[in-house]
Amino acid sequence: MIGTTRLIAALAFPLALSGCVTGADYSRKGAGFTAVANKTAIVTAKETVWIQNQNQARSAAAQVKDLLARTKPLDVETAVQIALLNNKGLQAAYADLGDSAADAWQSTMFINPTVSIGTTGIGTPELQAFKTIEGMITTNILALATKNRDMAIADTRFRQAQLIAAVKTLQVAADTRRAWIGAVASWENVGQLQHAQATADAASELAEKLGETGAMAKGAQAREHVFVAELAGETAKARLSARLAKEELTRLMGLWGSDLDYQVPNSLPPLPKSVVRRDTIEAEALRSRIDLQIAKLDLEATARSYGLTEATRYVTDLEILTGFETEREIEDDETKTRTTAQVELEFAIPIFDTGKARMRKSELAYMRAANLLAEKAVNVRSEARSTYEAYRSHYDIARHYRNNVVPLRTKVEEESLLTYNGMISNTFELLADTRDKINSTLLSVNAKRDFWLAEADLAPAIYGGGATKASAETEVAAASESSAGGGH
């Protein structure tokens, strides 16, 4: 028989092991979000919020309405701020951060022990003289031994989730900026096409009058009429594209209902006087790209998992069973009770599974993560170089149209007007030169749009938050004269 103190100690041992460690940082609502907000604010200079209750939701909605009311037409910086406050997909990304914090919090807690109690000899007359009560508490010792490694892995994944949330924030900001640029450029194109439409209408009307007098053949009249008809179709197509571009911006800002009445400017800002020099953009990207930091943490977590697999290669389940057994026997009307403590150790014998397959999988996972990190570093350097090259080139192209092509077309139009007034050239030569000038103006608008899109890609190339566009893709976009966006 053992004493009461020893019995309590035997039963309490597994319970003491299964107590929990404080996880205050993980258990706090909004855990990890401050780091996300601070990291993204450095890049965007904007506020972002994690909405977790009705009061916060009402506050964010009121802030969005105030921004819309105060900024008419809507500028690009206000559009980005609204998106960061109101984009629901961004809130879902922050919920994923909270889920990772909960996993890290859970890792700080020990596995609950299993308690079992049983009796024999009760309810059976022939066994009334002999009764046994058994109690057992089971605790997984291996889980205790590897707990620090489990917590380290969970913490690494939590830090990775913070970076993923930051990347999503930067992506929403960059996408909104690009959508605003596309929308405004589209409405600028619509304005130019409307101007061309007015010129074409005048030419068509003049052709009709000259045809009535017999001064213009029917074929020449038809050419002017068909130009008007084609231009009307292009203008309608441009208006549709503009409305769709505005809808893309609306989706990113998370607006609906009465908030859809916002307007954007009808023309993009003029080109800056000079480009920003980024001679060390590769080094900046390697130092600052958040997706590269995520890949590094993935390699760290994989390495920790590899170490955990190695530590548990041979024994995957190791349990300690602590309990007691009390026997009560009645003999000659005297009751005799005897209590004994039990401590057992259970584990699987690795006869068939020696852990080699699990070790091989962990090794391959580590190699995979290491190679993905190396590939990411190479790609980051290339993307940084490509983005800056596109930025510089599109600036030169846009400036060429602004300083050379459009002024020359204007000069041609002015000279054509002089020769027309001097009765040296006819009306349709003047109208043809005017149409050519409008086409050059449209190309100039598209070139300016491509520059601002390339400028918007610089931040994602350095910090992450969106795949940079290839130069060829941007030039294909420039070929479309009906790009959209809208403030009407």
Automatic annotation (TrEMBL):
Coiled coil residues, start to end: none
Extent of the signal sequence: 1-23
GO molecular function: efflux transmembrane transporter activity
Keywords: Signal
InterPro entries: MdtP/NodT-like (IPR010131)
UniProt superkingdom: Bacteria
PANTHER family membership: BLR4935 PROTEIN, OUTER MEMBRANE CATION EFFLUX PROTEIN
Protein name: Outer membrane protein TolC
